[in-house]
Amino acid sequence: MDASLIISNILNPPILFFFLGMVAVFVKSDLEVPAPFPKLLSLYLLFAIGFKGGVELIKSGITQEVVFTLLAAILMACFVPIYTFFILRLKLDTYDAAAIAATYGSISAVTFITAGAFLSELGIEYDGYMVAALALMESPAIIVGLILVNLFTADQGDRDFSWPEVLRDAFLNSSVFLLVGSLIIGVLTGEHGWQVLEPFTQGLFYGVLTFFLLDMGLVAARRIKDLQKTGTFLISFAILIPIVNAVLGILIAKFIGMPKGDALLFAVLSASASYIAVPAAMRLTVPEANPSLYVSTALAVTFPFNIIVGIPVYLYAIDMFWR
Fold first, then answer.
1. d(Cα 38, Cα 44) in Å, to the nearest integer?
2. What is the pLDDT of residues 309-322, one digit of tens each?
3. What secondary structure letter does DSSP report for 200?
4. Which of 129, 153, 168, 275 would staple 299 via disulfide (CB 3.0–4.6 Å)?
5. CA-based angle 60:9:253, to the nearest 5?
6. What residues in the chain have per-residue pLDDT under 50?
7. Pick from 301, 295, 289: nearest CA to 237
8. Residues sharing a CB contact under 8 Å with residue 55, sequence separation 6 or more, in sequence order
């Protein structure tokens, strides 16, 4: 593999600022991003990527490839938590296994956005409807995780469990709501809407992404100490399972006939893990699960692995496979 692909990815400003955030924690700098701003930055990124996806979706139209891609996205979001649950049950109890499986069945929007920036840097095009796949993969894993908890625990009848509340949290949480809403507005306004908002949605995008990754570096470094509680099994899981899921995603992308850019984004969606939506849902509905396990593995291991090594390696594999 050409090492310049990894070096090129690492030398991107957003990735370097992610490292800067981690270094700040390691050297005990007092650098921190004030609490309201990370939320604002994440809302901006979801809005911008959703709106752009909607505009691109109306350009491309609903083709057979779009339908197959969206169905494949839902399939992966349901399959990954099921098979990973049984792997995790070898070492963990049902609650922790289901929470971690749901985390890895869902996706990381920031990893997806970073992969999109990586493709843009290389001049590789990708279709906007992949944002719809992103939106569709966020919630099903939460539902599957909760079904697994109810199927494999003996005391489910005593648990305070409300399906309407679970479904509401899965499909109407702020991330999914804003992403889908922006996508719909992009579809409705099309090219005219894009021209009106372009200075905001395009011109500011990389600067906001860079600042957001600085904050993610701070958060990831603070979570590293939690890895002491997870042990080698979960650390290995947090690196190997994304690779397996990326391979599955690449095979599906090849079968559907996706172009290379779309294939990378699908592989990244399959390989990423949620550290916002799913942990929030699991905390509410499965309080027996230990948050330090599913948050630290997703945020301190899988997220940096994917954005530093995973994305260029997955693209290299796609390049080889698509020849």
1. 10
2. 999 999 999 999 98
3. I
4. 275
5. 40
6. none
7. 301
8. 128, 186, 187, 189, 190, 191, 193, 194
Which DSSP helix (H) or strand (E) runs through 13?
Answer: helix 13-26
d(CA 46, CA 212): 12
- Cα separations (Å) of 160 from 151, 152, 157, 284, 285? 15, 16, 8, 10, 8
User: How much helix, strand and coil, in percent to the nearest 5, is found in the chain?
Assistant: 85, 0, 15
User: What six digits make up the tokens of 312?
Assistant: 């260029």
59-114 pLDDT tens trace: 877 888 889 998 999 999 999 999 999 999 998 999 999 999 999 998 888 899 88
Token code pair at residue 162: 């409300």
- Which DSSP letter does residue 46 get? H
Q: What SS3 state is found at 62?
A: coil
DSSP 8-class letter at 302? I
* pLDDT given at position 313: 94
Token pair of 204 as six digits: 């500011």
Pull the structure tokens for residue 141.
């894993």
Query: Which tokens go with 185?
Result: 């507005």
Reading the block at residue 27, the tokens are: 């050297």
